[in-house]
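hi! just following up on the protien thing from before. the input was this:
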Amino acid sequence: MYYINVTLGINVKIIIVLHGSQDSDYVSSVRYFASRVGVNYAFISYTKPLVSDTIGDLYMPLFVGYGKDYEKAVLMTGFRTPPLLRWPRIKEFLLSMGPGLYVFHGDTNPRFINDVGKLGLHDVAFLKIKQTLEEYVSNHCPDRVIPVVLTRGVIYKEIVNTVNSSCSKTEVLNPLFELDSFINYFKDVLPWLIKNTRPIG
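and the predicted 3d structure came back as:
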C-alpha cells in the first residue's frame, strides 16, 4: 500500500479511480502509473480491484473530462475530483508535448467540449465526435499525434490503428500514464488535487 503524507503527522491512503477495462495493457498502464506516483488504484467496472471492494481515505476519480463515466465514478466513490482538463497548467503541459494533433476520446457533454475549446490547441480531433480522427487523417498526415488519454487500452489502440491505417509515418506518443513528463506533472499537482477532491452531498 502507498500513502501520501498530506500534512505533518497525517497519512492518507489515496485511491485513484478509473473506468476499468478487460484489456490487460490498460491495467498494466494503471499499475505502472500508480507505482510511480505512490498511490493505490481501483476501477468502477470490468476488472479488479473494484472500487466497491477497496478501502481508502480519499478516492480520486481520474478522467480526462466531464461525461457519463466521470459522473458514474463520482457517484460510486462519493468524491469529486476535477477532471484533467480543469487541472492547473494543463494547457501548458499539453502544449509542451507538441506541436501535433491532439486526439481525445470525445463526449457530447457541454462542459467537456467547452473545456477542450478553452485549451486553445491548434489541431484537435476526436474518436467519437466530430471532427473525427478518421476524417482528419484521411485528408492530412500530421508529423505527431498526441493522444490525450490516460492508459494503453482500447481507446488508445483505436487511435493508433486509425492513424496507422492512413499515416504510417506519423509518430503516436504513448498514453499519459506512461510518460515521465506526465508523471512528474501529476506529482507537482497532487497537493492541489488532494485539496480539491471533496465528498459529494
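The first strand starts at residue 4 and ends at 7.
The first helix runs from residue 24 to 37.
cheers
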